Amino acid sequence: VLSMAADALDRAMGALIGGALGDALGMPTQLLSPARIAELYGHVEDFAEPVPDHPVSKGLLAGTITDDTEQALLLGRILIDSGDRFDHARWVNALLDWEREVKARGSYDLLGPSTKRAIDAINDGVPAEEAGQNGDTNGATMRIAPVGIMMPPEPLVALVAKVAETCRATHNTSIAIASAAAVAAAVSSGVAGGDWRAACERAVMAARLGTTLGHWVTGGDIAARIAWAQDLVRGKTEHEAIRLIVDLVGTGVASQESVPAAFAVLEVAQGDPWRAAVISANLGGDTDTIGAIAAGMAGASAGLSRLPQDRIAKLHGIDLTEVRALATDLVAARQAKIRSGKEAAA
Question: Which residues lie below 8 Å from residue 287, measured CB to CB, with a gap of 6+?
């Protein structure tokens, strides 16, 4: 039996690498319609190259990760470097440096609409605290897994507060915070040893807390939509479930579509990370982000040891040694929080 720390590390790695698998599998199909995906690839079951005229993925090798994974690893580093108080200035500068580097290597997968708007505002002198007040798309959620690794599932309000803090500069809205809180709580529950069903229950609770934070924006309630989306696909065949997710839940960058979609995928995949990645890649729309979220949550509950090692070996654009170092630091920070919580309670 793995020691508790080794098990937590295995699950932390599962979250990060699971996310990378979902991201890379969805890379060639992102922004395409389900009909176009079927025409080009049949049913996507493995890494594929994007078509030469793909709007954002053109020129990438099969198995290449995108902004979802890169920004998650970036946020993880900033969390470790920040200590107890999240360093907004450092984070925003890291995102700007990242975008410059991405442009330099000729990639088209740049900062998303909410992040871009917020950073432009910050560059114009708007304080980080105010810049994110319109950010309601899924950018905060796609990169939130490290917060779930670092924060224990209890007290849930502390986890949600940390999520809200990391969202402040770019996604300081009720919808974005609820979405990111749901995913972080699911990851945290997985790292603590919970199965995917327990992770989903915890996610709905976290979304309810998260929706009370940030600037209120209009849109379907995230907690309610997660539960509804999972209920919608429960017991359905994969083919039928994909149609329901596409037609009713939606697969766009809006948090209230892609985040419930990722939880629906988790339900259809029954917590299997690779199945979650495959289902997501065939949805069309924001496939890489839905895949990164769904397979990341599944990976946290499954652990790295239960991910397909042959597929991990084919990933491009990710340094596994670097990911392991980050996961180790995040788990160490988590254990320290658990210890100080126990001491405070004693």
Answer: 26, 29, 30, 32, 251, 280, 281
Rounded Cα distance between 252 and 31, Å, is: 9
- Characterize 214-236 residue by residue with b for buried, 16 or more Cβ atoms within 10 angstroms of its Cβ, and e for exposed: bbebebebbbebbbbbbebbeeb
Task: For residue 199, give every residue at least 6 positions away whose Cβ sits within 8 Å of its Cβ, in sequence order, or none.
Answer: 185, 186, 187, 189, 190, 297, 300, 301
Whether the Cβ atoms of residue 80 and residue 87 lie closer than 8 Å to each other: no
- 58-68: pLDDT as tens digits: 999 999 999 99
The 10 Å Cβ neighbour count of residue 61 is 13
Residue 152: cis peptide before it, omega within 30 degrees of 0: no
User: Cβ atoms within 10 A of the Cβ of 99, count?
Assistant: 18
Residue 137, beta-bridge partner list: 254
pLDDT band at 344 (very low <50, low <70, confident <90, very high): confident
Contact 236, 204 (CB under 8 A): no
Token representation of residue 19:
């996310």
| pLDDT tens digit sequence for 118-148 | 988 988 999 877 899 999 999 999 999 999 9
Rounded to whole angstroms, the Cα distance separating 316 from 324 reads 16
Amino acid letter for position 30: Q
CA dist list (Å): 186 to 17, 59, 140, 147, 297: 16, 34, 15, 11, 6
- List the alpha helices (DSSP H) in the chain: 4-26, 34-41, 67-82, 88-104, 113-123, 128-131, 139-142, 145-150, 156-167, 174-191, 196-210, 222-233, 238-244, 255-268, 273-281, 287-302, 309-312, 320-345
Residue 162: which of 84, 105, 74 has the closest Cα?
84
pTM over 0.70, yes/no: yes
Q: What is the pLDDT of residues 201-248, one digit of tens each?
A: 999 999 999 999 999 999 999 999 999 999 999 999 999 999 999 999
